[in-house]
Amino acid sequence: MLLNKILLLCGLAIVLIFSSCNGFQSEDGESIQAGVTTSEAEPLPEMFKDHRGFEILPPETTGIDFVNWIKEDFDYNVMTYEYLYNGAGVAAGDISGNGYPDLYFVSTMGPNKLYLNKGNYEFEDITESAGLTAAEGFQTGVTMVDINGNGLLDIYISVTGKETGSIKRNLLFINNGDLTFTESAAEFGLDAESNSNHANFFDMNGNGYLDVYMINHPLTFQEAVTLRLRQREDGSTYRLTHPRTPYESDRLYRNNGGFYEDITAQAGMENSAYGLSVIISDINLNGLPDIFVGNDYIEPDHLYINKGNGVFEDKAMTYFRQMCQNSMGADIADFNNNGLPDIVVLDMVAEDHARYKELMNVMTVSRHNLMLEYDYGHQYVRNVLQMNAGQNANGDLEFSEIGRLAGVSNTDWSWGALFADFTNNTLKDLYIANGYLRDVTDLDYVVYTLDSINRTGGVTNVRFPDINTVLELVPSNPLPNYLYLNQGDLTFFDATATYGIDQPTFSSGSIYVDLNRDGNLDLVVSNINSPALVVQNKGSNNNYLQITTTGPGNNTRGIGTKAWATTGELTQYLELNGNRGFFSTSEHMLHFGLGDNEQVDQLLIVWPDNTFQKLHNVEANQRIHIEYAPEGTYTYPGIQSRDELFTTLSSPDIPEFHHRENDFEDFHRERLLPHRLSRLGPGLEVADFTGNGLEDFFIGGAKGQAGALFIQNQDGSFTKTQQAVLEADKEYEDVDAMFFDANDNGLLDLLVLSGGYSEPINSPLYNDRLYLNDGNGNLVRDESFPKIPTCSGPGLVHDFEGEGNPFIFVGGRALPVNYPLAPTSYILQRRGDRYVNITSRVFPDFNRIGMVTGIEAADLNGNGVLELVVTGEWMPIAVYSFEDGQFVERTEEFGLDRTNGWWYSLHVEDITGDGKMEIIGGNLGLNSRYKASQEKPIVNIARDFDRNGMIDAIMCYYHDGELYPYHRRDDLIGQIPELRAQFPRYRHYSDATLDEVFSPEQIAEAHRLEAYTMETSIFKMQDGVYQQMPLSNEAQVSPVFDILVDDFDGDGIKDVLLVGNHIWADVETGAYDASKGVLMRGNADGAFTFEPNRNHGLWASEEARKIRQIKTPNGETWVLIANSDSPLQFFRQNISAQPEL
User: What range defines the domain where residue 589 resides?
Assistant: First the structure.
C-alpha cells in the first residue's frame, strides 16, 4: 500500500471515515458511496454452461449479520495507523461436531462472532455463550487449528495496533468440547506481544506436532517506503534487513510437545518487513514444507525453503524474476494441473481504465533502478501469478510471472486470494476479495486537497468542528470482488458480473467452504461496514471428491497432507493447508472437481511425515475421511530438470563470455517509450571462419566491450582469438553479425552491425563494420565499407540475382529520440573492390520501411521467384518478390496485410515437410498490458506536439469505441508541459479520449502506427495465402527474440525453439521475463505442443537475443544462446535429428 507516501507528502494526521453518499448504511445511519462496477457481464464460455451459478444469500436468510465496523477518531484513524482499513479474517471449521462447518468472524475494533451451522444455510450466533467475543484489541488474522491434538478445533487470533501491553497480545481459545472456549495463549507460549497480522500452523519437521509461523510488522509506517541502506567501511552500500525492534520481525515457533519455543534466529528468519500473508506449501516437492510471505511496501517477499533441522533459506530473489510492490493476499495451488504448486499474490492496481489513472501506484524509473541496485528486485504494482516451471540444472526453482496473460493482474485494492475448483470441472478457479474504505491514494486528493489543507494550517478541531467536512473530500468507492473461472489454457474468465455476484463492497478476509455438504464450494467474505457475504454455489452436473484426514501424532487434521488424484490421464494435486485467502482459514478439506469422471482411479496420500497410502477406484460424489495408516515411506520423484533433450554445459568444457551492457537509461531521454531500445544485443553467428572444417563463432559486445571471435580446436575446445581491431572498435554496440565471403577470395569475412540507441542521430558509432579475413586468423577492418550511420537491427546476405554477387540487407532498428519513426535501412552490393548503396535502384521503399527486426529470403510459393520477407516493430509480415531486378510488394497477395505487431524475430522454413514454406513470427506475446486485435488495435500517434524538436509518441488503446492514451497524466505532461493547463486535475484527464487531449488537426498530421496482433504465430500457406495460427499460450509469456528449428526429439518432425525476454519495458508495464526458452514439439498433424523445460532440459531464462547451433568434432550438436548482460549459454543436444526424407 501507499498511504505512507501521503504521510511523507503532507505530514498530517487526518481522520478518515465513510462519507455521506448513497449506498450501505453505517452503524449510525450514515451511508457510503455505492461504488463502481469493474466489468460488464459477458456470455459464459461454453465450457462453463453446465454450471448453475452463484447467489449471495441475505443475512435475513442465513442469520449471519456480522459487520466489521471501522470507527475512527482523531487518535485512531488511517493516518495515525495505516493498517486500519486492512480488514480482518474469517475461519471455518466444525466446532459442534455435527458435520457442518461453523464460521468465526474477527472484528478489527469490536466483538467477534461465532455462528453455529445448523444446515441448509441457517446459522445461530453463539458467541457470548462460547466465550469468544474477544472485543478488546486491534484484531487481524484468525486460524482454526487443533493445537493440542485432542481432536477439537481451537481458535488463534492475531492482534496488532498502536497499543502496548496485554491488549496487544495474541489470543488462543482452547475448545472445551462443549461449545465453550478458554483463552490460554500464555500456557502455550503463544501470547506474543508483536504487531501480528496472521499465524500459520504447520508441521515443519514431520514429527506430528504443529509449529507456527507468525507474520508481524513494524509500526514505523513512515519508513515503509524508505530504502534501508548502510555504508560499509570501504564506502560500499548495502541493504539492511534485520529488525529494528524486538517485536517487528516475523516469528517461527517450534512446538516442543505442547509449549512453543521461538527459534526465529537459529532458523535464519529474522527480518523486518510488513507481512500481510503467509502460505505454507512444499513448493519444491521434497517432503519439507516451505513458507511464502507476502510483504507490503518495498521489502521483497520471502520464500523460505525448508533445509531441514529447523533451518530455512530465503530464495525469493533467486526464484522470482519479479514481485508485487505491495504484496497483500496470496494463495498457493497447482492451477494448471502440471503437478507443481503455483503462487498468486495480490496488489492494488485498478481494472477500470479511468480509475487506473486516478490512483497513485506507479514508481519512477530512477527509484526502480535504485531498488534494483540495492537488491530489492523488480517490483510492480499489480497482481502476480507465479507459474512454477520446476527446477533448473542448478537445482533452483524457476517461476514465470503470467498474471497479465492469465487476465488476473488488475483487481484494485485486493486482499483475499482463493484457488479452488468452484465448478468441479478439474480446473482450479480464482476468487479475489478486494476493496479499501477510502481512496487515500486518489491523486487529486493527495496532490491538491491534502496539500492545500496542509498549507493552510492542517486539520484541527478548531478549523473543522465537524470532521465530516474533511472526510467528504476523500473519495470512497466500494468494488465488486472477482470470480475468475479457469479456462485450462493459462487464462481465466471473469464471471463476476455474469453470475450476478458483483455487489460492491469493501471486502478483506475470505474463505471457501462447503456450507451445506452438497459437494460445491461456497464462499464467505468479511466486509468492512457492511454485512459479510455468504455466496451459495449452485453447482453443476460435474462430479467431485472431498477428503478429510486424521494425520500422524497431534496433527489431527492432517495439515500438510498431500493428495494426488488420478482420473484417466489426468492427475490433480492438492495440499491440505487451511490458511488461505487473507487473514483467514478455509475448511480443512481437500476438494477435487472430477468433471464427468465417476471415480478416482488412484488416490495417493502422502502424510507430513513422508509416509504414504493409496486408495483405488474411489467412487465420486462423496466426502471420505482417511485415517493415518501408512503403507511405507514415500520417495519423492523430484521436479529436477530431466535433461531428456538438452544438457547444460559449463566451465571448463565451454568458452566463457559475459555480455555486459553499458549504463544508459532510455526513459530519461524519452519518457513515453514503451520499452528500452538500447539493450537489443548481442549479435551471435556461427561459421567455419578458419576453413578447417570446424565451426567457430563470433559474439558481439555492448558499448565499451569488445566482441569476441572464438576458434574451435580439434579437441572440441575453443580459443578466444586476440583481435586488435575488435578491441579498437569496442565503443560500438554489436547487435548482429554475418559471416560471408565479402571479397570473393574464398575466405569468410565478418560483417558486424552497430546499434545501441544511446548515441545521437547520425553518430559514427552507428556505422556498420566489415572485417576482412587476412587468411591467418586475423580480422582487418575494410575502411572502404559504406559509412551509413543508422541504428541497425538485423542483416541478411543473399544472392537474389543468382550471379554470385549477393545483396547485403541492413534493417534499421530505431531512430534515436524519434520513436517510432522509421530509421534508415539500406541494401549494398559489391562493385569492383568496394560496396555501394543500391537501395534506390532495387528497393527505394526499403529506405524507410520501418523499425526492422527480421529479414529472411525464400521462395514462398514455389514459383521460382525469391521473396524477401521483412518485419519489425509496428510492421506487418511484409513480402516483396524480386522481379526483373526490382522488389515488388506482395504482402496483401500473400494474405499478410493487417498482420502488424511488435515482431521481434522472423524465421522462414518448410517446418511441416509439406513442401510449403511456413513463416514463424516472434511477437511481444500476450503477457502484457498491450492487448491488440483487428477490431481494437493498439495505436501510436507520433509527432512533435509541443514543437520542441522532439517526437512525442502517444501510445493509445480502444475502449468502448474511443481511443485513449495509455500514459498517465504526469508522464504526458512531463513530455508535453503545455497540457497541464488543459488538465489541471487528474480526474479531468483520467477519462479523456485522444480527441479531447489533442485537436483533430494535430491528430491528422501525426504519424499513426497500428498493431493488430501481439501473438507469436506460425503462418501456414493455404490456397496460396497465409493463415495466422497463434502458438499456444505457453509461447505467449514473453517477447520472442530468436527462433531455432530442428528435430530436437528425433521423431522425424521438426520442432521449434523460441527464446527471448525483455526486462527493460517501462516501469508501469514491467519486465517481460517469463520465458525460460519455449520448446514447441512438432506433431504429425502439423500442430505444435508445448514441452515443459523440466522435461527437455534447456533453460533460457535471461534476456536471450540470439540462438545458434554449432557442431563439434565428435559429432555433437551444441546450442548457443547469447544473452544481454549475461553469460553466453551452451547446451548439448542429446538426440540427433533424423535425416530428412
Answer: 545-633
